[in-house]
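Hey, can you fold this one?
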Amino acid sequence: MEGTTTDRRVRRTKARLRQALAQLLLEKDLSSITVRELTDLADVNRGTFYTHYRDLYDMLEQMEQEMFQELEDMLDSYASDILQQDITPILRDVFRFVGRNKDLCQVFLARQAVDRFSQRLNTLIYHKCLAEWRELYQRYPNLSGLADRPEEGNYALEFVVAGAVGLIRAWLERGAQESPEEMAQLTGQLILSGVYSQAPWVCGVDSQAP
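Sure. Predicted structure:
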């Protein structure tokens, strides 16, 4: 019981530090933020900060890693056969994830497109799509149009990734006014309308699959 209470206290402390850091990062660069400034804003003892992190860069790295691990686990929980029937549920979960982590996503996605976070997010989504579409290539060996070489230069995948990440960024910039469900529906419709002309049976669009 004591361990559970301690874990909850640690989670609350880290949550306050995380919220404070996200707030400060919307105002200035990480190099301009001090640990004292962060802990004062979070109302956390400076010594407590160093119990969990070496410095602010270590804190940001850990936060990013935790976010990506959660996102990757969520994406991996969807099997290929489920996604080929309907991609809306996984898109809904992605937007819910972004909504839960809105503070940090706003910080990370507001940076340059070449930022490491954006590259890592694009890569994660790209490889998830690639893994699912490889399954389609195996099921339908006569597939043509999506890409000549699925391992490289896959224009359809680039389209899906850029579109999905772009919609996430726009949603955050506009204050996430729409619900995750609404955004998932819109994203799914846009993705399918773009891919449909090349492979109309993808994701269960066409019941007359070969």
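The longest helix spans residues 2-25. Let me know if you want another pass with a different chain boundary.
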